[in-house]
Amino acid sequence: MSEKKMSSSRKHQLKSLMLSIAKVLLEEEDKEREQERSRYMAENCPPVSMPRTMQELQELCKEINKNIDRIDEERYDLEMKVTKTNKEIEDLKIKVQDLMGKFKKPVLRKVRMSADAMLKALLGSKHTVNMDLRANLKQVKKEVKEEDKQLRDVGDWRKNVEDKSDRKKMFDS
Protein backbone atom coordinates (compact mmCIF):
# COMPACT_ATOMS: atom_id res chain seq x y z
CA MET A 1 0.00 0.00 0.00
CA SER A 2 1.29 3.39 -0.86
CA GLU A 3 0.84 6.19 1.64
CA LYS A 4 -0.04 9.60 0.27
CA LYS A 5 2.10 12.48 1.49
CA MET A 6 0.31 15.40 3.04
CA SER A 7 0.93 18.85 1.62
CA SER A 8 2.62 21.41 3.84
CA SER A 9 -0.43 23.71 3.80
CA ARG A 10 -2.63 20.83 4.97
CA LYS A 11 -0.11 20.00 7.73
CA HIS A 12 -0.08 23.65 8.83
CA GLN A 13 -3.88 23.81 8.84
CA LEU A 14 -4.21 20.62 10.94
CA LYS A 15 -1.49 21.78 13.33
CA SER A 16 -3.19 25.15 13.90
CA LEU A 17 -6.55 23.38 14.40
CA MET A 18 -5.05 21.04 17.01
CA LEU A 19 -3.36 23.95 18.79
CA SER A 20 -6.60 25.94 18.93
CA ILE A 21 -8.46 22.92 20.37
CA ALA A 22 -5.67 22.42 22.93
CA LYS A 23 -5.85 26.11 23.88
CA VAL A 24 -9.61 25.88 24.52
CA LEU A 25 -9.15 22.71 26.60
CA LEU A 26 -6.37 24.29 28.67
CA GLU A 27 -8.49 27.37 29.35
CA GLU A 28 -11.38 25.17 30.50
CA GLU A 29 -9.02 23.22 32.78
CA ASP A 30 -7.75 26.47 34.31
CA LYS A 31 -11.32 27.65 34.98
CA GLU A 32 -12.25 24.29 36.55
CA ARG A 33 -9.10 24.31 38.68
CA GLU A 34 -9.84 27.85 39.90
CA GLN A 35 -13.46 26.91 40.75
CA GLU A 36 -12.29 23.80 42.59
CA ARG A 37 -9.73 25.82 44.53
CA SER A 38 -12.28 28.45 45.56
CA ARG A 39 -14.76 25.70 46.59
CA TYR A 40 -12.06 23.94 48.63
CA MET A 41 -11.01 27.17 50.32
CA ALA A 42 -14.64 28.03 51.18
CA GLU A 43 -15.18 24.53 52.57
CA ASN A 44 -11.97 24.13 54.55
CA CYS A 45 -11.01 27.73 55.35
CA PRO A 46 -14.05 29.75 56.39
CA PRO A 47 -13.56 33.48 56.94
CA VAL A 48 -12.08 34.22 60.35
CA SER A 49 -13.87 36.51 62.75
CA MET A 50 -11.56 38.07 65.29
CA PRO A 51 -12.33 36.83 68.82
CA ARG A 52 -13.05 39.37 71.52
CA THR A 53 -12.53 37.32 74.66
CA MET A 54 -9.76 35.06 75.88
CA GLN A 55 -11.99 31.99 75.74
CA GLU A 56 -12.95 32.63 72.11
CA LEU A 57 -9.26 33.06 71.26
CA GLN A 58 -8.42 29.72 72.91
CA GLU A 59 -11.22 28.00 71.00
CA LEU A 60 -9.92 29.47 67.76
CA CYS A 61 -6.39 28.23 68.54
CA LYS A 62 -7.70 24.72 69.31
CA GLU A 63 -9.65 24.68 66.05
CA ILE A 64 -6.63 25.87 64.07
CA ASN A 65 -4.41 23.19 65.67
CA LYS A 66 -6.97 20.48 64.82
CA ASN A 67 -7.00 21.67 61.22
CA ILE A 68 -3.18 21.71 61.10
CA ASP A 69 -3.03 18.11 62.39
CA ARG A 70 -5.63 16.94 59.89
CA ILE A 71 -3.86 18.66 57.01
CA ASP A 72 -0.51 17.17 58.09
CA GLU A 73 -2.06 13.68 58.07
CA GLU A 74 -3.53 14.28 54.61
CA ARG A 75 -0.18 15.58 53.34
CA TYR A 76 1.63 12.55 54.74
CA ASP A 77 -0.89 10.17 53.16
CA LEU A 78 -0.63 11.93 49.81
CA GLU A 79 3.17 11.91 50.01
CA MET A 80 3.15 8.16 50.63
CA LYS A 81 0.80 7.62 47.69
CA VAL A 82 3.06 9.70 45.45
CA THR A 83 6.20 7.77 46.43
CA LYS A 84 4.39 4.46 45.93
CA THR A 85 3.12 5.56 42.53
CA ASN A 86 6.59 6.79 41.51
CA LYS A 87 8.03 3.42 42.44
CA GLU A 88 5.36 1.66 40.38
CA ILE A 89 6.13 3.96 37.44
CA GLU A 90 9.84 3.11 37.66
CA ASP A 91 9.01 -0.61 37.77
CA LEU A 92 6.75 -0.25 34.73
CA LYS A 93 9.48 1.66 32.86
CA ILE A 94 11.87 -1.20 33.52
CA LYS A 95 9.27 -3.72 32.33
CA VAL A 96 8.68 -1.68 29.16
CA GLN A 97 12.40 -1.65 28.43
CA ASP A 98 12.55 -5.40 28.98
CA LEU A 99 9.59 -5.97 26.67
CA MET A 100 10.97 -3.68 23.98
CA GLY A 101 14.17 -5.63 23.92
CA LYS A 102 16.21 -2.79 22.43
CA PHE A 103 19.03 -3.25 24.86
CA LYS A 104 20.87 -6.53 24.92
CA LYS A 105 21.40 -7.90 28.35
CA PRO A 106 25.00 -8.82 29.09
CA VAL A 107 25.82 -12.49 29.23
CA LEU A 108 26.14 -13.63 32.81
CA ARG A 109 29.40 -15.22 33.79
CA LYS A 110 29.67 -18.11 36.18
CA VAL A 111 31.21 -16.82 39.35
CA ARG A 112 32.44 -18.82 42.29
CA MET A 113 31.55 -17.14 45.53
CA SER A 114 32.03 -18.10 49.11
CA ALA A 115 29.05 -18.14 51.41
CA ASP A 116 30.32 -14.95 53.08
CA ALA A 117 30.59 -13.13 49.76
CA MET A 118 27.15 -14.32 48.68
CA LEU A 119 25.53 -13.13 51.91
CA LYS A 120 27.39 -9.83 51.66
CA ALA A 121 26.12 -9.38 48.08
CA LEU A 122 22.55 -10.23 49.05
CA LEU A 123 22.33 -8.34 52.33
CA GLY A 124 24.66 -5.47 51.50
CA SER A 125 27.83 -4.40 53.22
CA LYS A 126 26.00 -3.17 56.31
CA HIS A 127 24.83 -6.65 57.29
CA THR A 128 27.88 -8.85 57.30
CA VAL A 129 27.55 -12.34 58.68
CA ASN A 130 30.73 -14.04 59.80
CA MET A 131 30.66 -17.66 58.75
CA ASP A 132 34.11 -18.44 60.21
CA LEU A 133 33.08 -21.11 62.67
CA ARG A 134 36.61 -22.18 63.53
CA ALA A 135 37.28 -18.86 65.22
CA ASN A 136 34.56 -19.59 67.75
CA LEU A 137 36.05 -22.92 68.81
CA LYS A 138 38.12 -23.18 71.96
CA GLN A 139 41.40 -25.05 72.10
CA VAL A 140 41.16 -28.23 74.08
CA LYS A 141 44.25 -29.60 75.77
CA LYS A 142 44.64 -33.32 75.77
CA GLU A 143 44.45 -34.78 79.24
CA VAL A 144 47.36 -36.95 80.21
CA LYS A 145 46.75 -39.73 82.69
CA GLU A 146 49.07 -39.98 85.69
CA GLU A 147 50.06 -43.58 84.93
CA ASP A 148 50.92 -42.79 81.32
CA LYS A 149 52.94 -39.81 82.45
CA GLN A 150 55.04 -41.88 84.85
CA LEU A 151 55.60 -44.59 82.25
CA ARG A 152 56.58 -41.99 79.67
CA ASP A 153 59.06 -40.32 82.02
CA VAL A 154 60.72 -43.63 82.84
CA GLY A 155 60.36 -45.44 79.54
CA ASP A 156 60.99 -42.68 76.99
CA TRP A 157 64.76 -42.96 76.63
CA ARG A 158 64.79 -40.67 73.57
CA LYS A 159 63.49 -37.76 75.59
CA ASN A 160 66.08 -38.40 78.28
CA VAL A 161 68.85 -38.46 75.67
CA GLU A 162 67.63 -35.19 74.12
CA ASP A 163 67.51 -33.53 77.54
CA LYS A 164 71.04 -34.68 78.31
CA SER A 165 72.34 -33.42 74.98
CA ASP A 166 70.74 -30.04 75.61
CA ARG A 167 72.47 -29.88 78.99
CA LYS A 168 75.78 -30.84 77.38
CA LYS A 169 75.39 -28.02 74.82
CA MET A 170 74.76 -25.56 77.66
CA PHE A 171 77.97 -26.54 79.44
CA ASP A 172 80.00 -26.48 76.23
CA SER A 173 79.10 -22.90 75.40
Describe this structure as you would to a colleague.
69% of the residues lie in helices and 0% in strands. The protein is built from five helices and no strands. The protein has helices spanning 8-44, 54-100, 115-123, 146-155, 157-172. Residues 28-49, 142-173 are annotated as: Disordered. InterPro entries: Troponin (IPR001978), Troponin_I (IPR050875), Troponin_sf (IPR038077). It comes from Gouania willdenowi. Binds to actin and tropomyosin.
Characteristics:
single chain, 173 residues, mainly alpha, 5 helices, 69% helix
- Largest sheet, strands/sense/barrel: none
Secondary-structure element order, as H and E? HHHHH
Mean pLDDT: 79
User: How many β-strand runs?
Assistant: 0
Secondary structural class: mainly alpha
The separation of the N and C termini measures 112 Å
Coarse shape: elongated
Put simply, the count of helices is: 5
Which value, in Å, is the CA radius of gyration? 43 Å
Function: Troponin I is the inhibitory subunit of troponin, the thin filament regulatory complex which confers calcium-sensitivity to striated muscle actomyosin ATPase activity.
Protein name: Troponin I, fast skeletal muscle
Coiled coil: 54-102
GO cellular component, one term: troponin complex
How would you summarize the topology of this molecule?
Elements: H1 8-44, H2 54-100, H3 115-123, H4 146-155, H5 157-172
Short summary:
Helix content is 69%, strand content 0%. The protein is mostly helical and 173 residues long.
